[in-house]
Write a structure and sequence with these properties.
alpha/beta, eight-stranded mixed β-sheet, two-stranded antiparallel sheet
């Protein structure tokens, strides 16, 4: 049974039956059922994180989002979740009882969701479906790498979240430009990312999500962690942070050179962040991928 449950919590596949843009996963961070919305089915992303599980060597099934199909798919998944029929599906039949609850609708997918031109409409549609299914307490979550988080059009689109419970999870995996380029596979300026998160945190509830992998045996050193904590303080000087998620790899990356931090090292890292940053910290340990 342990192996089956492990599979349930590790399987974040973004295809479910014949659906094209919406997908259900049982998430360890959501502690229940998360209904994913894939706004980047073409697998195009402005980050190229080597720890990402998305295989970008193969093309996506769709090159763009069919908005009406997306809404219909999400509507159908909400119906399955509310009725409990989702737990009869072979993929979820072994889900542990505490996880048999619907926690959120998450905008994540195979790329950066804030690059989608109809983001505001997609968020509004999710809010409307939440209401029509009688789920006023269902959270909407936007998971972002923060590359566009400070842009006026994106901030305006995110206002749709304020109609109910929401979270914005902003990625911050590094404290220095060198490690940022390595761990996120980009030559963008880390200062730009920090400014964007700060601008968003001044207007919205923001959660920092930080993944610390091993990369060809190398891990973040104490100086790197110190620089990372400095950036957290910089963001806090402009706004508020709801939570800091400290975690390592738990799903099989596309890059074979990626490993995970030990539980002990992750605990050490989280303890330092808790000591130096006045924000709650949650830790999510790695798992050996199958």
């Amino acid at each position: 049974m342990a192996t089956v449950r492990h599979s349930v919590l590790s399987d974040h596949a973004r295809q479910f039956d014949e659906l094209r843009f919406a997908y259900p996963v049982v998430s360890r961070r959501s502690r229940g059922l998360s209904l994913g919305v894939n706004l980047n089915p073409d697998k195009v992303c402005n980050f190229h994180c080597p720890y990402c599980q998305v295989d970008r060597t193969t093309a996506g099934r769709d090159t763009e989002v069919d908005f009406e199909v997306l809404v219909d798919e999400l509507d159908g998944l909400l119906g399955l979740a509310v009725s409990g029929e989702i737990w009869k599906h072979p993929r979820f039949a072994a889900t542990p009882e505490p996880f048999r609850r619907i926690n959120d609708i998450a905008f994540a997918g195979d790329g950066e969701p804030t690059t989608y031109a109809r983001l505001a409409e997609a968020l509004k549609a999710a809010c409307d479906l939440r209401a029509s299914h009688g789920l006023p307490d269902l959270k909407l979550i936007v998971i972002t790498n923060a590359t566009r988080l400070g842009e006026p059009m994106v901030l305006k689109a995110l206002e749709a979240l304020k109609g109910g419970p929401y979270e914005i999870w902003a990625k911050l995996d590094a404290g220095t430009q060198g490690w940022f380029e390595k761990v996120n596979g980009t030559s963008l300026n880390l200062r730009h990312i920090v400014r964007n998160i700060a601008a968003c945190a001044a207007r919205f509830d923001v959660t920092i999500q930080s993944l610390f992998p091993a990369m060809d045996g190398a891990v973040s050193g104490e100086d790197e962690i110190g620089a990372y904590i400095g950036l957290l303080h910089e963001i806090l000087s402009a706004g508020k942070l709801k939570l800091i998620q400290v975690y390592t790899t738990a799903r099989k990356p596309a890059d074979k050179g990626i490993g995970m931090l030990s539980d002990a090292r992750l605990d050490e890292l989280a303890a330092r962040v808790r000591k130096e940053v006045p924000v709650p910290v949650e830790v999510y340990y790695g798992r050996q991928w199958e």
